[in-house]
Give the backbone structure.
Amino acid sequence: MKACKATYAIKKVKTAFSIRWWNQILEVKKKDIQALNKRLHKTEGEEKQQYEIAFSEKKRHSLKKTVKKADWNSFWNMCTRATDPFGLSYKAIVKNRHPPANCF
């Protein structure tokens, strides 16, 4: 076993980083929209119209709006907590021209 591990190159599994601003409220809204989408594609007839109304732009727009708001609030908090003027917040804004999601 040791010889196999020494001779063969073993790939490291990439782990997904966690986004700190993603919370339970956003997760519940996302799951709700996914469930409505699944029901919409499974049903036919009059029930389909009800799910289309429920799966309307309003629900998806509210999720997008809350995600953007949570992302921006997290970025704003990171920038206000910064003590070094040329630290992470400066690099996030100047180098990339937009706030990255993985620096919080």
Summary: The helical segments are 2-7, 24-42, 46-54, 57-81, 88-94. Residues 57-81 form the longest helix (25 residues). The mean pLDDT is 78. The CA atoms of residues 35 and 83 lie 44 Å apart.
